[in-house]
């Protein structure tokens, strides 16, 4: 039997994280532990009082820093870490299916689920809408395993024996945009990383507490260039992300979506491009903006 811990790194959304932690109690196979990693006790709110009794650990702010804190704390205590965003709702059989897949094939070192809904792309879902989507569509997803170059960070499971000393790159600060690509692309060199409809859920895409438009826009360019130079982002993916994000910000700035700061993102894109041109690009600059 594999030991499986759920890790949620969160900041500034205590009410949301309490609700998502409470939902873990509905899993048909309970995790062996739940760890919340937060910059302050206030960020966890009342989540420690949940029926699943999560452990709360403090860490300097930043998704990569917080997830690294979890890796250090759990290195000798578990076999698998399931990293979830604080706005991810799992289908009830997620952890049971995860254990079954990983126990059946030791060559699999990472897994991510095929989602029935991703609010990042649709403007956001409520928890009630997420549960309805799961109830209607989860059973109909394709159960086949598909090899991937990297995993989606809102729900990704890591086999710790394969990860070893691998850590998230803390040069990608705050929200850590594309930290999942960087980490799991390196993990893929140590075994198979896969996606499947047997694992599913909904990424709510909640907007509150996220990075500002200018900072995210800077990261949309700077982080990709940084990871290209590092060699942990496939060139084809890097070109597609750069083209999609910069073009979307440019075209939609005059008529932005209500939930997206297109003008701020475009300003951040341009600032990063200027820094690249003069040789001063650094993803960590967003911490000083």
TrEMBL record:
Question: What EC number is given for this enzyme?
Answer: 2.4.-.-
| Record GO terms (molecular function) | glycosyltransferase activity
Matching entries from SUPFAM superfamilies are given as:
Nucleotide-diphospho-sugar transferases
Which InterPro entries does the UniProt record give?
Answer: Glyco_trans_2-like (IPR001173), Glycosyltransf_2 (IPR050834), Nucleotide-diphossugar_trans (IPR029044)
Glycosyltransferase 2-like domain ranges (all copies): 6-161
Q: Provide the top EC class.
A: transferase
Instruction: Enumerate the UniProt keywords alphabetically.
Output: Glycosyltransferase, Transferase
The record, for Pfam families, names: Glycos_transf_2
Q: What is this protein called?
A: Glycosyltransferase
- Organism of derivation: Novosphingobium cyanobacteriorum
